[in-house]
Amino acid sequence: MDRETFHNCYSLIKIPRQSCQQYRSSHFVDYIERGITYTKFFKNYLLPNQPCMFSKKFTEDWNCRKHWVTDDGKPNFQKLLQEFDETPVPVANCSAKEYNANPKQIMAFKEFIQYWREYIQNGHSSPRGCLYLKDWHMQRIFPEHDTYKTPIYFSSDWLNEYWDTIEMDDYRFVYMGPKGSWTPFHADVFRSYSWSANICGRKKWLLYPPGQEEFLKDSHGNLAYDVTATILQDKGLFPHSDKACPPLEIIQEAGEVIFVPSGWHHQVYNLEDTVSVNHNWLNGCNLDIMWQFLQDELLSVQKEIEEWRDTMDTWHQHCQVIMKSCTGIDYMEFALFLKTIVNNRISFLNSCPGNAVSCQGNPSEALCALGPHHAAFDLQRVIHVLESMLSNEDFKRLEPSALGFSPDELLQEIREAVHTIV
């Protein structure tokens, strides 16, 4: 990030984003044919939360595109088996529905490839249903495999930065599925961004801007499983479905990379035998969206168990436990997440004499590439959210000793660090 962009963003409290009405008249997304500056991507897509597509030029030097794909553009089963063979992988059955999702099982990679070959030979059908290898943490399991490189546009990735730090999880995935496999209607974890690159094959995306999902819930408040199903025309079951705008329908070709903004609900189909890489990620641009999502999730839990509020001394703590079991995070871990991000950026700024743009030897490649002004922007966004948290009644109920740090002191430390670069 350059100095001018930082100073333009410095005073932002609420990031301006396009309204749903603006999306209603839009039937296309920007197609980025060749390299653009990070600053332009930041201004045109990250801040306004706007989708776009990158051409195959951005992935043409990836090893996975060279080695996982045959000369005729199909998945290279032989090469993939050489690399992964007996590796356990998560496989969903797209032909079955379980709690508004597809049931999953763990199987050996070679068993899935054997199934896939038979599925193709049988005209893309099988009595076992349509199986889809998805949400596989390939990068975490095989860190030595130099299969792809995250484009710089997506490198300000707090989500994976945090989980890499605590060495517990990550949100980097590989998907492999036959023609006809698909993912039901959903929004990504924590309302994060996602980027998805097709190594081979083609996908169809149906995207709805934030807020439209409210019209695509049934009379009980449950999100639609399949937005193309005729059942949505039943006014008794889906009373508001006719108010939803038409989705953005995007065809993603081999090698292309789609950027899916924060909170955009989507449904995805594999139009051919397809292999893809996907990351969920967030940063200062959509941190406020994640914080609002967590507040909404906690409120939903509180409403669900309201009747026990006066009978349980630990009712508020129980709400946090339930929220974490449903979403994967609670207020305490969110605070620890922010502290990790803050510590990394303050350390980075302290290691840059005179706030030089190039910082030799700094452990974070992404922070070095994006520069000190981006680190300062990140800290400024944390200030905004942390101030909101400190005034939040549910956050105030957390035990300070359990946090292990003082949020007020952290806030003051961030302000001092940002002041040095402003």
TrEMBL record:
Cofactor(s) needed: Fe(2+)
InterPro entries for this protein: Cupin_8, JmjC_dom, JMJD6_ArgDemeth/LysHydrox
Name of a matching Pfam family: Cupin_8
Gene Ontology MF terms: 2-oxoglutarate-dependent dioxygenase activity; catalytic activity, acting on a protein; metal ion binding; sequence-specific DNA binding
SMART domains: JmjC
Recorded catalytic activity of this chain's protein: L-lysyl-[protein] + 2-oxoglutarate + O2 = 4-hydroxy-L-lysyl-[protein] + succinate + CO2
GO cellular component term, pick one: nucleus
Source taxon at top rank: Eukaryota
Domain JmjC: 139-298
Annotated coiled-coil segments of the chain: none
Keyword entries, A-Z: Iron, Metal-binding, Oxidoreductase
GO biological process, one term: positive regulation of translational termination
Record-stated family: Belongs to the JMJD6 family.
Protein name: 2-oxoglutarate and iron-dependent oxygenase JMJD4
